[in-house]
Design a protein that fits this description.
By secondary structure, the protein is an alpha/beta fold. It has helices at residues 50-57, 80-85, 102-106, 108-112, 117-130, 147-159, 177-194, 205-211, 229-234, 238-257; strands at residues 9-19, 25-35, 39-43, 65-70, 73-74, 87-91, 165-169, 197-202, 214-219, 222-227. The protein is globular, with a radius of gyration of 19 Å.
Length: 258
Amino acid sequence: MNSPSQNGVAIAFREVSYRFSTGVELLNQLNLEVHRGETLVLLGRSGSGKTTTLKLINDLVSPTSGEVYVEGRPTRQWDPIRLRRGIGYVIQDAGLFPHFTVERNISLVPTIEQWPADRIRNRVAELLQLVGLDASLSSRYPRELSGGQRQRVGVARALAADPPILLMDEPFAALDPITRAELQQEFLALQQRLQKTVVFVTHDLREALRLGTRIALMESGRLVTALPPDEFAKSSDPLVRQYLNAFSASANGKREND
């Protein structure tokens, strides 16, 4: 069998299961590929295995069975530090270091990688502009920023060393609807420009349909289906229909209450 990287595949799961030592299973025989430059959205309710799937990609947890490949190599053959420094990670509420300024938060990985000081300064300035933040914010601390600004800094930090892969775990879930929509639009513009390989976790169908080039629906640790948004919206799979019907009912209820 060809190495996944030979087929334009950045990440591949081959019969991957993950369970706790107690026997509780979080992932069951997952087979899934993420192609270079695509945004694969992992959609599913809480406990469906979405975040566990992300953690397997950057080796925060290791498969109980099966193999996860990143750029054609099993994660167990990677040096975990090198693997993680090549992957940007964005989480809900940004996860910024509160005692670091915006500049220090963004420059964390380049500093660890011992980039020259002038290159780091230039990269921070470039990224602030890229995510729509004023350069004057570089000396502020996370507590001095709005929620939307913190998320933008989180995205900038993930992009700092120009990693080919981004993992995003419900990055916009804690934001108000207007800010969330703005950041979704900015994400689409960034992705069109940068063409990163993105795995994006959400439980929000509207967000999945808007941001994903493919949507992988997960349920109870299993992959239900992985389809482009237009095909997903037309799928006859019972679980997909359940999501679509729940979304329609929620949208209709909101209109009635307005």
